[in-house]
Design brief:
This protein is an alpha+beta fold and about 70 residues long. It has a single domain, classed as Double Stranded RNA Binding Domain (2-Layer Sandwich). It is built from 1 helix and 3 strands, in the order βββα. Strands 1-2-3 form a 3-stranded antiparallel beta sheet, covered by helices on one side.
Length: about 70
């Protein structure tokens, strides 16, 4: 996709896990970063918080963030 300024960007899909608590709050985490949960008032609010987490964690500026990887073994 191109913006009016000519800058291109790509959308990516990120897997996440979520559930609803008894009080109606939505809790969830990015599957790549399962140690770091966030919450939202509804599913859309939760998704916004998850996007913020992804931006913060994926740049590598915060040390000690645990991640999940995939390994192929023959």
């Amino acid at each position: 996709m191109k913006l009016e300024s000519g800058i291109s960007f790509f959308l990516m899909k990120i897997n996440f896990t979520y559930w609803t608590e008894e009080d109606g709050e939505f809790l969830g985490y990015l599957n790549e970063y399962p140690d770091h949960w966030t919450q939202g008032e509804d599913l859309e609010d939760l998704k916004e918080h998850l996007v913020d987490l992804h931006k913060e964690f994926s740049d590598g500026a915060i040390p000690g963030i645990r991640r999940v990887g995939e390994l192929e073994v023959a």
